[in-house]
Design a protein that fits this description.
mainly beta, 47 strands, 5-stranded mixed beta sheet, 7 helices, single chain, Phage tail protein beta-alpha-beta fold, 22-stranded antiparallel barrel, 827 residues, Maltoporin, Chain A, 52% strand
């Protein structure tokens, strides 16, 4: 919480000729024919009847007709026949949105004079259409059969639609989610695009068990609560590697336009990642180079004078695809709903992949991001926000800082790589690494409380600089082996982390301010240096995991890890140097039953630990904070459909929590324990006829089971017991409105207590989101590749309090309405 409130890139499958196909090809060439049949299919599903009716989401850019049809065939899992002379010289406008097979083919072929006809055996044949005549063309021609594997989803790659089937966040291996004995959510690129998410918190608004605005509007970090426990906001994971900051300003808000997936693992994860919180983790998966060409430019305008330009480009650098690239960038200039507060950003992320052979892949990932805000903190007096004030309600736009002083400027630069080499059919070596530097300049004015007139606040401010350096390297050996009906995926890993933080902070007293009629520029702050320190963390850990699949029916996951950590603090003002070392052994055990119907009940136990840097009054080091979770759940994920439903119950305990030492002011003691129990339900589906749905429900109680402040038995503050969210989007498949997509979302956050003493409540609130999308090529060929979207969050501009308990008895309002118009061109 805020201290002011106590696998490698997916490879294209190589085509291979079957013997019968080769015989037909030789026969056809002998006859002097020039036809080539493109056939793309999933061998076990090529002629499956449900494929024709089931809708899927596609993002196929415009290009040569043959290429777009090949890609569509692979993704749809169909067998499609056509001759090269039929498609020669023709281009397709591409395909974006959710389509059934026939509707998708019709859209790809729009304006080409061709049509695809479904055959009795479930395959499709491409035919020429002549006005006033019957269909003629490829029917009856001898053909060459070329087969290719469907480009399967990987744990690190793109997903069509909302429903991901694989993830590596919970296991560090490319594992079907249905085989994972812990609750996990994947936010896909398609979902992020259709909901136009502006931050990681935005992306998680519809996820079960997640409170995305746990710190209200805050530009300093993505503050997220999972199963009642704050992830800290300064402890993020990018491509499975940890990015950590010690202090309040050192977190960052990651640019979501550079992400392929956002994944939430609920519950402890120390078995694979070392020290971390008990509630869970958020893992951000970067966009990576692709052999498929991507050319996208995007312009956004919106409320609060928002203008943004973004671009995403990818493809082959060499004809054979040995070298591929990706370049993603963004520029934004924007105000916010708070006076004098900006939201400007510059972002660029180049990436390069080298694939010298089928067994080796090396991806270089680079990133630069600069955030510029007018302020990083916006808490207003509780009396006038949550509770009534005789002077009226304090406006949500009120700025309590000083224009020209308040700022939050942050620059972050990182470089890393993802290496994978297959040593044999059974043995794979991976090594992932990243080095990151981040500098934050943060000036903020805070209120220490409201005076007796209920309109004047007392203020103080700080001016600080933080420099964070993170280096992480994770080396893994994966051994896939089998004996009888038992299959093993054994993972042995070793990771090392080194993280340093240099902080300088000066403090000053500012003039009082009338919150109803603020007059700025009256303060001339005399800053006094109050902190000058360096903190350093090193951690190394060995971990062993075995995923055991028995007779394709039972999957057991067993894991154990041993960590050693050392943390030191140099106080340059006080001239002191303190160190602390900790070690911990953590484990996980889980079991999943894979029923033929698509149901998969599971049970698991997992552990976490987090070192606590501080000492007691008598100088003793604190014990590491620990966590244990028991979870029982069931998933429903039919093999041949884009449907995923998860229901789970959990019992999660966080121990050795530090609390104020009531006998020694200014010191802490470890007398706290918090228990979180609850039920979660989450569903995602890409349905027929252009329907996409999301839904979640969470019910839980987060209770203080040990507390020395008289709050034992109370509910943890700012954690609602109930949250409900649903999103429905429909893309019109035919008729005059074909290509129009409409999405509607509802988010309900239940009431919560404003403090641990449970003296008052923050009311529940319900928000409505709306989205319109339109494929502009429906207007004519001149609009091929153009797409327009309008996204509105908090449609009715509801004013609500998101969270309380800040210094000076303050609260934060939630986000006001935000409407953004997006125009995208893909070619």
């Amino acid at each position: 919480m805020d201290h002011t409130r106590h696998k490698p890139p997916q490879r294209s499958s190589a085509r291979r000729f079957t013997r019968s196909a080769l015989a037909r090809a030789i026969g056809h060439i002998t006859l002097g024919g020039a036809a080539v049949l493109a056939v793309v299919s999933l061998p076990s599903m090529a002629l499956a009847q449900p494929a024709a009716a089931q809708a899927r989401s596609y993002n196929i850019p415009p290009g040569p007709l043959e290429d777009t049809l090949n890609r569509f065939g692979r993704e749809a899992g169909i067998l499609l026949s056509f001759t090269t002379e039929t498609t020669a010289g023709l281009r397709s406008p591409g395909l974006q949105g959710s389509y059934a097979v026939q509707a998708g083919l019709d859209a790809l072929l729009a304006g080409s004079g061709l049509q695809a006809t479904r055959q009795p055996n479930g395959s499709y044949v491409l035919n020429k259409v002549s006005a006033g005549t019957a269909v003629t063309g490829a029917v009856g021609l001898p053909v060459v059969t070329v087969t290719a594997d469907v480009e399967q989803e990987t744990a690190w790659g793109p997903v069509n639609g909302y429903v991901a089937k694989r993830s590596a966040t919970a296991t560090k291996t490319d594992t079907p989610i249905i085989e994972t004995p812990q609750s996990i959510t994947v936010i896909t690129r398609d979902q992020m695009t259709e909901q136009n998410v502006q931050s990681v918190s935005d992306a998680l608004r519809y996820s079960a068990g997640v409170l995305a605005e746990s710190n209200g509007p805050d530009p300093r970090a993505d503050n997220i609560v999972i199963r009642g426990f704050d992830t800290g906001g300064r402890d993020a994971y990018r491509d499975g590697l940890r990015s950590y900051a010690f202090n309040n300003q050192g977190g960052t808000v990651y640019e979501t336009y550079g992400l392929e997936r956002i994944e939430v693992l609920r519950g402890p994860s120390s078995i694979l990642y070392g020290q971390g919180g008990a509630g869970g983790m958020v893992n951000l998966i970067s966009k990576r180079p692709t052999a498929e060409p991507i050319h996208e430019l995007q312009v956004q305008v919106g409320e609060n004078n928002r203008t943004q330009l973004a671009g995403d480009f990818a493809g082959k650098l060499t004809e054979d695809g040995e070298w591929t690239y990706r370049l993603t960038g963004l520029l934004r200039d924007s105000d916010t709903f708070v006076d004098h507060v900006k939201d400007d950003r510059q972002y660029i992320a180049p990436a390069l992949t080298w694939t010298p052979d089928a067994d080796t892949s090396f991806t270089l990932l680079m990133e630069y991001q600069r955030n510029q805000r007018g302020q990083g903190y916006q808490a207003l007096p509780r009396v006038g926000t949550l509770d009534s004030n005789p002077n009226g309600k304090i406006s949500t736009s009120t700025f309590l800082g000083e224009p020209g002083f308040d700022r939050f400027d942050q620059e972050r630069t990182s470089i890393g790589y993802l290496l994978e080499h297959r040593l044999s059919d059974q043995l794979t070596l991976r090594q992932n690494a990243r080095y990151q530097e981040m500098e934050t300049k943060a000036n903020s004015v805070y209120t220490t409380g409201l005076k007796a007139d209920n309109r004047t606040v007392v203020r103080f401010g700080s001016q600080g600089t933080e420099k964070v350096k993170n280096a992480v390297i994770d080396t893994q050996v994966q051994w896939s082996w089998q004996h009888g009906v038992v299959e093993h995926t054994t993972l042995l890993g070793f990771d090392v982390q080194s993280m340093r933080n240099d902080t300088q902070t000066a403090y000053a007293t500012f003039n009082d301010l009338d919150v109803y009629q603020p007059i700025y520029g009256q303060s001339s702050a005399a800053l006094t240096l109050g902190e000058d320190s360096r903190q350093h963390l090193t951690q190394n850990g060995f971990y062993l995991q075995d995923q055991i699949k028995i007779d394709k029916t039972w999957v057991a996951t067993l894991g154990v890890r041993r960590d050693s950590t050392k943390q030191s603090t140099d106080d340059h003002l006080g001239g002191t140097h303190t160190t602390q070392t900790d070690s911990a052994t953590t484990g996980r055990i889980g079991l999943v039953y894979l029923a033929p119907s698509g149901f998969a009940p599971y049970v698991s136990y997992s552990e976490s630990f987090t070192p606590v840097v501080d000492t007691t009054y008598n100088g003793s080091a604190f014990k590491p904070e620990t966590g244990q979770q028991y979870e029982v759940g069931v998933r429903y994920q039919p093999a041949d459909s884009a449907i995923s439903i998860t229901a789970s119950v959990f019992d999660l305990t966080r121990q050795n929590v530090t609390t104020d030492d009531l006998e020694h002011a200014g010191f802490s003691t470890q007398r706290g324990e918090v228990n979180s129990r609850g039920f979660e339900l989450e569903a995602k589906a890409n349905l027929a006829h252009g329907w996409d749905v999301l839904g979640s429900y969470s019910h839980g109680k987060t209770k203080l089971t040990k507390d020395n402040s008289g709050n034992e038995g109370n509910q943890l503050s700012n954690v609602p017991q109930n949250t409900v969210a649903a999103w429905v989007q429909h893309t019109v498949q035919s008729g005059d409105l074909s290509g129009l997509g409409i999405g509607v979302g509802i988010r309900h956050v239940g009431s919560s207590y404003r403090d641990d003493a449970n003296t008052g409540k923050i009311p529940a609130y319900t928000l409505i989101d709306l989205a319109f999308r339109y494929d502009l090529r429906r207007l004519g060929t001149n609009w091929n590749g153009w797409h327009a979207a309008l996204n509105v969050s908090n449609l009715f501009d509801k004013e609500y309090v998101a969270t309380c308990g800040y210094y000076g008895d303050a609260c934060k309002y939630g986000y006001r309405r935000n409407a953004v118009l997006t125009l995208t061109y893909i070619w």
